[in-house]
Amino acid sequence: MATNQQSLLRQWHMLRMVPRAPARVSAKELCERLCAADFPVTKRTVERDLNELSAVFPIVADSRDKPFGWSWLRDASSFDLPGLTLPEALTLTLVEQHLRHHLPPTAVDALRPHFQSAARTLSAVDESVPSRAWLDKVRSVPPQQPLLAPRMDAECQRIVYLALMQDRQLRLHYRKRDGDGPTVYDAVHPLGVVQRGGMVYLVCMFAGYDDVRTIALHRVQQAEALYEPARKSPGFDIDAYIASGQFGVIAGEPITLRAVFTRAAGEHLYETPLTADQILLADEDGRLHLAATVPNTRSLVWWLLGFGDGVVIQEPVELREELAGIAVRMAAAYAE
Questions:
Q1: Over the stretch 184-209, which tens digit does the pLDDT of each residue have?
Q2: Class of the 245-335 domain?
Q3: Alpha-carbon gap, residue 212 to 60, rounded angstroms
Q4: Does 229 sit behind a cis peptide bond, omega within 30 degrees of 0 on the bond before it?
Q5: Contact 125, 86 (CB under 8 A)
Q6: What is the CA radius of gyration of the chain?
Q7: In 71, 125, 170, 297, which residue has its Cα 20 to 30 A from 251's Cα atom?
Q8: Beta 183-196 vs 199-206: how paired, if at all?
Q9: 230-259 pLDDT, tens per residue?
Q10: Is 326 within 8 Å of 262 (Cβ atoms)?
């Protein structure tokens, strides 16, 4: 049986889940959200709580349609935690900017009022205040040319994230890059979500297959969470999956890369090694000789091409020949 403290905490959270009119929420929806937030409760208890709380707080039920929808009166005072301090507001703003795609929908829903409060707190102070000014002093810059993030259907993302969190199967309508119409995947088993730059990917398995695949979330046009539990991939580890080079577009088994860099092009590898087993030696002419075991990916090729004539590949021979061929074709293209 719930203690008075547990009941009070549950009701506190429930009051925060009730939207301001004209938006509304049913007792059934509140029950589901409370259960998802680790407050196990029945719909009947939620209805009883709402009726009791409406005698104290300005919340009302719209009885014009069934199920009844509950909301705060439009002009009701804000129901919020005590005012945020500037450091708290700054932290919440940075969380919203950088971790939005890493949070499950229930966490985003729970934090949204805090994000709004943080924005109000920061907007109310002068820009010269240190905590407020910090936002204009720090940036996260991608190592490659930044691209605008693709447009992603928010509701599809929400459904996919909920299915991932609850270990449920998905039914997806997916638009392939070169497809004329959507491809329907009737049984998708979600394993994880990975963000790479502005792109968000779903790591999953299809139907009865055991191989792990990756699909771009912005190409999902329609999503439905099924009630069937999702299958697990034995031994699957998302960190190992990323380290294998899958998000660099895998091209084969790992390779031993041997290359010679000019000092200007390769000196950064002393401070930011390519791999844990990297060997970097300088010769008498100041050139840097690199040896490292790396995933064989297209990203590796693009990274090496970015150094131009600042690097010469020695091994493997296939990679050396590929980059040499690209250099020849580039020279021919610019000679026209």
A1: 999 999 999 988 878 889 999 999 89
A2: alpha beta
A3: 49
A4: no
A5: yes
A6: 27
A7: 170
A8: antiparallel
A9: 999 988 998 888 877 777 656 678 899 999
A10: no
Distance CA 274, CA 258 (A): 12
Give dist(CA 112, CA 104) in Å, integer.
12
Q: What is the pLDDT of residue 22?
A: 82
- Cβ distance 242 to 228 under 8 Å? no
Q: Which residue stretches of the chain are H helix?
A: 4-17, 27-36, 43-53, 86-99, 105-123, 130-133, 154-166, 238-243, 263-266, 298-305, 317-335
CA distances from 122 to 98, 119, 128 (A): 17, 5, 11
Q: Is 158 helix (H, G, I), strand (E, B) or coil?
A: helix
Q: Which residue has tokens 């590949």?
A: 313
Q: Which residues is 59 bridged to in the sheet?
A: 72
Residue 306: helix, strand or coil by DSSP?
Answer: coil
> Residue 1: pLDDT above 70?
no
CATH 3.40.50.300, domain 154-240, yes or no: no
Give CATH for domain 4-72.
1.10.10.10
- Residue ranges covered by each domain of the chain: 4-72, 86-136, 154-240, 245-335
Q: Which residues contact 300 (CB under 8 A, 6 or more apart)?
A: 248, 257, 294
Q: Amino acid identity, residue 173?
A: H
- Beta strands 183-196 and 168-174 are antiparallel
- Which pTM value belongs to this model? 0.63
Length of the chain equals 336
Residue 120 confidence (pLDDT) above 90: no
CA atoms within 13 A on the CB side of 161: 19
Contact 282, 332 (CB under 8 A): no
Contact 261, 304 (CB under 8 A): no
Give pLDDT tens digits for 67-99: 788 888 877 665 654 556 778 888 888 888 888
CA 323 → CA 30, 212, 250, 267, 319, distances in Å?
59, 30, 17, 21, 6
Compute the average pLDDT of residues 143-163: 86
- Closest-CA residue to 322 (of 255, 265, 276): 255
